[in-house]
UniProtKB/TrEMBL annotation, chain A:
PROSITE patterns linked to this entry: PROKAR_LIPOPROTEIN (PS51257)
Protein name: Peptidase M16 inactive domain protein
UniProtKB/TrEMBL annotation, chain B:
Entry protein name: Uncharacterized protein
A molecular function GO annotation: metal ion binding
Transmembrane parts of this sequence: none
Ranges of biased composition (kind: Acidic residues): 48-76
Compositionally biased intervals (Pro residues): 534-549
Bias kind Basic and acidic residues: ranges: 587-598
Native source species: Enhygromyxa salina
Composition-biased stretches (Low complexity): 475-497, 550-586
Annotated stretches, region: Disordered: 35-76, 437-509, 525-605
InterPro entries per record: Metalloenz_LuxS/M16
Length: 483, 605
């Protein structure tokens, strides 16, 4: 062996050792700094009932051997067990397509639901939140070890090529092309977040184009435990006999793909999508800086109507700003079909408009005019309270009816929090803040962020179900960009 | 050098971490701080402070934590040692109030349950109770039409209604911050409801739009099992006669049937039960003091002879028998234990080769039913001998568990299963409140003693008596249960070996037999036959003897919950007023079956 070869070999081994000891180290105190949750313990305790927040205590936090971060919420004497795995999709948005995500989730559902059928009262729930998908298992606390074992086994074996191919086939078999509403919403989200459309929307062709390699790549990206967060709500402690082994098995059987590091230590960092690089400076239907309308040709919706989604990104760096944005959306929703997705420092506002073929531009102008009139109208305090109480009450009532699953509320709290330390109090602070908002604050906020022709720029829109008639009429007043 | 090249070298190193065994001490667990739940404040410690605090003196922190642990453990032990209590009182106005605590989320469930149902429909006005229940959503002088529902909906809550054979419930789930408003609604709901023609017609249209109930057992068979003709009709029909009722008629029927003295108000919330009761009492303080109305017990009818009663229902195969299950929480739970046992019971030595018995439990707060379907029996003798033999084996085990230890173990395992199922299903306030609405009525008024009752007792969980071994370390229980004789046998089952083996067997079978003795006797059942089928010979020689201890006969005919229409029930069938047993009832739409394979829930509006 030449000197250079020996040097190179020594270098490789040295790098490997260093890498292994630093990045590769999975479960030790160096990889995860302790989180001191804000609990308000320095103040007079606040009754959780008055702010409609769960009476939870700060969770136990751990990092599993595979790099996943676990938050363990304990409720003494709870007979139920809930585990929720949060898998971010926005972290590798340019590489992870919606089609691959759908196939991977189908594979998980196929394997996991078969295992859960053998556990009495166990239930699987798949859902999505901004920038992530969530896999939740609900069952009895007495069966916690079996439930965790089913989850661990599924992550261990559901990613095999054969099952992924079967899942792809099943998704394809029941695939129906989404209507204009879903397509327009996906197009707007991709524009606002600067993602490829394929990340937000899985067409039949996208599913057909999934090769074996892309399926496996999608599986690896989606289920990488170093990006994942595991939430548990249980009556038992993770240190209990049997439970510690079950948790350890989850950390060992669910393996991370080969790579460096153990992932980001904070769950908020793991789950948050990077802010869009380009901030638009456009308005809607204005002479200066008008936004172009990207459209997808296709068949209109029922009643010969195309769908236009109007939206923007609203910066929401603090809990107070998220609360304001939410209350404004709830108020405006009484007039229009308005949605708001809160994802920490940014939120996405989307308004659905069904435009007629007679005069689509006039339809859009009417909607914008209604928004401006609404923004200019002072909202009485009673109305604010009513909207706030409805939103806050529905949150806890729904949680109670769906089995008192704290992990769902904790997941929502992650979205409301600015950082990990705020998660514990985010729901309570959100509720308290919403009930204390002044009408003037709301009006000023709406004028700034909810007016498509004034206030802050950044408005965009996308249309779907646009046939030739629509296109010609829209093109007379708006610059169109075909997608 | 790329990662791909490095990967083979890194794998062994990485795998060390991946394969490392779980060690809690190695994890970065943050122990639970002392009770600081739910605080809301601005950040007072920066991240740097927090890190510094954490790094300062880990040993000291551990010591502090360790010092805290015993206190927390003591508190937990103390809490566990005190059995949870449920408040159960009757207010001076005659309303029964049950309050319980569930602190998982800041929500409260409120249920106003009335002990009447479609069985109380007058003969000439079928569907009246159902329609009147809808009409109680139309407000009164204090509540606007629809306000009762809007009070819950406006704060994101849930409002529902359940109308069954013998119970009507108004159910709601609201944020705890709106509990007082919801309680106010229930305190006003029955007071002089609006009776305008337009509102009545609207109520009828709502009633007409309800889904029809799918019956597991034909209504005529259920009526026969309960010997209650009021159960035979469709309680959700909206007949022309209802539309023809005058305003005064609607008002008269409302005041006749819907009365707080027949009602139970259940409140489950995160506050202590005493605190919840304090919120309820002032709302009813202005009602005049009146005694609670006597409510008929949901007890099963007696046997009429040596053979089961026969009901002719078209399209029956003659293989099924139906029992009326007592309408109280404990009996309902034990009936499910029995059902689970029968579905898993091994064949007896005398059973025909392919004999099988399949049990289905049709749940209802006050009028539950148990259906046994036999297969592989001798057609000439019908299903009764096979079913009676299976039940007799269970009865024998109740007296002497060692007769068939496997069966005794099976009963115990089913008891544990049902107890676990119920505890799990009742973990949320809405389900718990609906369940408590069927709790057996206490006999003593609030002033006569403590308003608290043990939670497990009120919930009717199937708890086994202490085993004989636990009780005295000797033989079987000192509370023998009279076994039901197997068909053709001369007397009680042969005594089984006693001694150590018997003493260690569970007492579940004995408790089951003591709780639902009528379900172990085929003479208390109804045999469903097609009109063309012949009646098989009876399996028993004589009718069962009545209880000797003078206790109320479990099979007494249930009286109507309220003064029913003339001619609805023969006067002779009515229970004497002195009996004053709790009333009978109906079906919950939202009742979750404890065992989806064995339990069929009834439907509600």
């Amino acid at each position: 062996m030449s000197r250079w070869a020996r040097t190179r070999a020594a270098l490789v081994v040295g790098v490997a050792v260093v890498g292994g000891l630093t990045g590769g180290c999975r479960c030790n105190k160096e990889t995860l700094a302790p989180i001191v949750f804000e609990t308000g313990s320095d103040r007079e305790p606040v009754d959780p009932n008055s702010v409609l927040a769960p009476p939870w205590e700060p969770p136990l936090v751990a990092q599993l051997d595979n790099g996943a971060v676990m938050h363990w919420l304990r409720e003494t004497d709870s007979p139920a067990f809930h585990v929720r795995v949060l898998l971010p999709t926005a972290v590798d948005a340019d590489k992870l397509s919606a089609a691959a995500t759908t196939a991977a989730l189908e594979a998980i559902e196929l394997r996991l639901s078969a295992r859960l059928r053998r556990i009495f009262d166990a239930r699987l729930e798949l859902s999505s939140r901004p920038g992530r998908v969530e896999i939740a298992i609900h069952g009895r606390d007495a069966d916690a070890e079996e439930l965790l074992a089913a989850l661990a086994s599924t992550f261990a074996d559901a990613g095999n090529p054969k099952l992924l191919a079967i899942a792809q086939g099943k998704v394809l078999a029941r695939h129906r092309e989404a209507g204009p509403s879903a397509l327009a919403a996906a197009a707007l989200a991709s524009k606002l977040l600067d993602h490829p459309l394929a990340h937000e929307y899985a067409s039949k062709q996208d599913l057909l184009d999934l090769s074996k390699n892309r399926l496996e790549k999608g599986w690896s990206l989606l289920t990488d435990p170093r990006d994942a967060v595991v939430l548990v709500h249980s009556g038992r402690s993770p240190a209990d006999e049997g439970m510690s082994e079950a948790v350890a098995r989850l950390g060992t059987r669910w393996k991370a793909p080969i790579g460096f590091g153990s992932g980001k230590p904070n769950v908020t960092d793991r789950l948050r999508a990077p802010a869009p690089k380009r901030i638009a400076d456009t308005f809607l239907l204005t002479e200066q800086a008008p936004a172009s309308l990207s459209f997808h040709p296709g068949k209109p919706e029922r009643g010969n109507r195309a769908v236009v989604m109007i939206g923007r990104v609203i910066p929401t760096p603090t809990i107070e700003s998220r609360t304001l944005a939410r209350l404004c959306q709830r108020l405006l929703q009484e007039e229009l079909d308005v949605r708001l997705l809160v994802a920490g420092p940014i939120s996405i506002l989307a308004i659905k408009v069904r435009v007629s073929s007679t005069d689509p531009v006039a339809s859009l102008q009417r909607i914008i005019a209604r928004m401006q009139v609404f923004n200019a109208t002072p909202q009485p305090r009673e109305r604010l309270e009513q909207a706030a109480n409805l939103w806050l009450g529905a949150r806890v009532v729904e949680a109670s009816l769906s089995g008192e699953d704290w992990t769902s509320l904790w997941s929502e709290s992650i979205d409301l929090a600015g950082n990990d330390r705020e998660i514990f109090v985010a729901l309570a602070r959100d509720a308290q803040g919403m009930l204390e908002l002044e009408p003037e604050q709301v009006q000023a906020y709406m004028a700034e962020w909810f007016d498509p022709q004034a206030g802050q720029p950044g408005w965009m829109w996308a249309a779907a179900g646009v046939d030739d008639t629509f296109r010609d009429k829209l093109a007379a007043s708006i610059r169109l960009v075909e997608q | 050098m790329t990662l791909r090249i490095l990967a083979p070298l890194l794998i062994p190193l990485l795998s060390v971490g991946l394969a490392s065994p779980w060690d809690v001490s190695g994890l970065n667990m943050k122990p639970l701080p002392p009770n600081v739940a739910g605080g809301v404040s601005d950040p007072t410690t920066t991240d740097a402070d927090a890190d510094a605090d954490a790094d300062d003196d880990p040993d000291g922190a551990d010591e502090a934590d360790a010092a805290d642990e015993p206190d927390a453990a003591d508190e937990l032990d103390a809490a566990a040692a005190t059995p949870q209590q449920i408040i159960d009182v009757v207010l001076p106005c005659g309303l029964r109030v049950i309050t319980a605590k569930d602190a998982s989320l800041p929500v409260a469930a409120v249920v106003l349950a009335l002990e009447l149902g479609t069985r109380d429909d007058p003969d000439n006005l079928p569907g009246l109770i159902h329609a009147l229940a809808y009409h109680l959503q139309q407000g009164n002088r204090e509540l606007a039409p629809g306000e009762a529902i809007a009070t819950a909906h406006d704060v994101g809550g849930l409002a529902a209604m359940a109308v069954g054979v013998a119970q009507v419930r108004f159910e709601s789930l609201v944020p705890i911050s709106r509990l007082d408003q919801q309680l106010r609604v229930e305190a006003l709901r029955l007071r002089a409801p609006n009776t305008g023609r337009e509102l009545w017609l609207k109520s009828l249209s709502y009633a007409r739009g309800d889904d029809r109930v799918k019956h597991l057992v034909p209504p005529e068979a259920a009526a026969a099992a309960w010997q209650d003709p009021g159960m035979a009709h469709d309680g959700r029909v909206v007949a022309q006669a209802l539309g023809d009722m005058l305003d005064q008629g609607v008002g008269a029927q409302l005041s006749r049937f819907y009365d707080y003295r027949l009602a139970t108000l259940v409140v489950v919330g995160p506050d202590e039960p005493e605190a919840l009761l304090e919120r309820v009492e002032p709302l009813f303080a202005d009602l005049p003091a009146r005694p609670r109305k006597p409510i008929a017990a949901a007890v099963t009818p007696p046997a009429t002879g040596a053979a089961p009663r026969v009901v002719r229902v078209p399209r029956q195969k003659g293989d099924s028998m139906v029992w009326a299950v007592p309408g109280d929480l404990s009996a309902r739970a034990w009936a499910q234990v029995l059902c689970g046992t029968l579905n898993r019971q091994q064949q007896g030595s005398d059973d025909p080769g392919k004999a099988r018995v399949r049990c289905t439990y049709a749940d209802d707060p006050r009028r539950p039913l148990l259906v046994l379907r036999a297969a592989g029996y001798e057609p000439a003798v019908g299903p009764e001998p096979l079913i009676a033999a299976r039940l007799a084996r269970i009865s024998a085990v109740a007296t002497s568990p060692a007769v068939e230890p496997e069966l005794a173990q099976l009963i115990e395992s089913q008891r544990v299963r049902i107890e676990t199922d119920l505890s799990f299903d009742l973990r949320a306030p809405f389900e718990l409140a609906s369940h408590l609405a069927s709790a057996g009525e206490r006999r003593n008024p609030k002033s006569a003693g403590s308003p608290g009752r043990p939670r497990d007792e009120v919930l009717g969980l199937p708890l086994a008596r202490p085993s004989a071994a636990e009780a005295d370390g000797l033989g079987p229980s000192a509370d023998p249960v009279a076994p039901v004789a197997a068909p053709g046998s001369e007397g009680p089952p042969a005594s089984a070996p006693t001694g150590e083996a018997q003493a260690s067997l569970p007492e579940s079978a004995a408790t089951l037999a003591a709780s639902i003795p009528e379900l172990l006797d085929t003479r208390r059942a109804v045999l469903l036959l097609d009109p063309d089928q012949d009646v098989p010979p009876p399996a028993h020689d004589s009718a069962p003897s009545p209880p000797a201890d003078g206790a109320p006969q479990p099979g007494a005919k249930p009286a109507p919950a309220t003064g029913g229409p003339a001619g609805k029930q023969p006067a002779a069938d009515k229970q004497p007023a002195a009996d004053k047993q709790p009333a009978a009832d109906k079906q919950p739409a939202d009742k979750k079956p404890a065992d989806k394979n064995e339990t069929a829930a009834g439907g509600d509006a």
